[in-house]
């Protein structure tokens, strides 16, 4: 009985936390604080170009190209993990393997890909920080990436850690489709930066 009460209060705590975070985000978005913060960030972006990553990225094109290649390979790794795990949830592939096993293995690969993508992405951004700051698509990508990371670690992963048979199949499919859409948006906006920046 006490376990059920603790579990129920824990789920309410998570819901309240998410609601508070969304309220703070809305307040930030619809006040002058957002504009002031954005203007102050420009100095930070200019400083990024003076860091060792920024200097190397701007002056050594070969190093930048190698880091970009690693970034693309890590994105393929991350994207593959997302596609395999979500396709399994949708029943499109690997149906003979338990869904939980696919989710656990894909999540490990996802974390490795995400770590490499973030590190190489920061390196590449430092070299062109003053330029990408003015690209609206860069901010769209950062928003999509933050949404994807939040979705994976605070919604998708905790939900799918439970026995999947206990979950409504429609909810599981909705989570999988949402995940595919979020990460497709991250990939599309990342590619769009390449077009917008050239």
Fill in the keyword field for this structure.
85% helix; globular; mainly alpha; single chain; 198 residues; 8 helices
Report the total helices. Answer: 8
- Computed over alpha carbons, the radius of gyration is 20 Å
> Which runs of at least 5 residues are low in confidence (pLDDT < 50)?
none
Q: How many E strands?
A: 0
Q: How much is the average pLDDT? A: 86
How do the helices and strands follow one another from N- to C-terminus?
HHHHHHHH
Binned, the helix content reads: over 70%
Determine the N-to-C terminus distance: 61 Å
Largest sheet descriptor: none
The helix/strand class is mainly alpha
Specify the overall morphology.
globular
Count of distinct structural domains: 1
Strand content: under 5%
Can you tell me about this structure?
- With 198 residues, the chain is an all-alpha fold.
- It has one domain.
- It has helices at residues 2-29, 32-48, 52-59, 61-89, 99-127, 129-132, 136-160, 169-197.
- It is globular and about 55 Å long.
- The termini are far apart.
What's the short story on this structure?
With 198 residues, the protein is mostly helical. The chain has helices spanning 2-29, 32-48, 52-59, 61-89, 99-127, 129-132, 136-160, 169-197. The protein has one domain (52-197).
Question: What is the topology?
Answer:
Elements: H1 2-29, H2 32-48, H3 52-59, H4 61-89, H5 99-127, H6 129-132, H7 136-160, H8 169-197
Helix pairs in contact: 3-5, 4-5, 4-8, 7-8
